[in-house]
TrEMBL record:
Transmembrane segments: none annotated. CDD domains: AdoMet_MTases (cd02440). This is Methyltransferase type 11. Keywords: Methyltransferase, Transferase. One of its GO terms (biological process) is methylation. GO terms for molecular function: methyltransferase activity. InterPro entries: SAM-dependent_MTases_sf. SUPFAM superfamilies: S-adenosyl-L-methionine-dependent methyltransferases. Residues 35-55 are annotated as: Disordered.
Length: 130
């Protein structure tokens, strides 16, 4: 169970990140340029997967999907947002229903099947077991 100071500090960090949305917009646009979608014949039978590690309120993921032309079409991608903050995941769920509440240490993902990984957590923030 989180103590009040930890929850307040987490909420303050999230508010600060939301205020710097312009910076995130620039980062998201540069990440979109790196994405190489599958051929249309492949995507006809399978949905590409997107995992956003440390998704926070989901702003980067929704902007990324919008830039890829899939805004408001969650069914276009299998989207999983991961974050340790329950409060920010509640915000993210308003835009995307596929966000789950797990820490990165509690979830196993077979990276070979992912099409796009949106890592907001730096290597120093990930558990050493990953």
């Amino acid at each position: 169970m989180e103590n009040a100071d930890t929850v307040e500090a987490d909420d303050n960090r999230q508010r600060s990140m939301i205020r710097t949305e312009t910076s995130y917009n620039v980062l998201t646009q540069s990440r979109c340029a790196l994405y190489n979608p599958r051929s249309e014949s492949e995507t006809e039978t399978t949905r590409p997967s997107l995992v956003d590690l440390g998704c926070g309120p989901g702003r980067n993921t929704t902007q990324l999907l919008s830039a890829l032309g899939t805004a408001n079409k969650a069914s276009s991608f299998s989207v999983i947002g991961l974050d340790v903050s329950h409060g920010t995941l509640d915000v993210a769920r308003t835009a995307m229903r596929d966000y789950v509440t797990k820490s990165t240490a509690q979830i196993e993902i077979e990276l070979g099947i992912l099409d796009l990984l949106q890592p907001e957590l730096s290597k120093t923030q990930l558990p050493s077991s990953l």
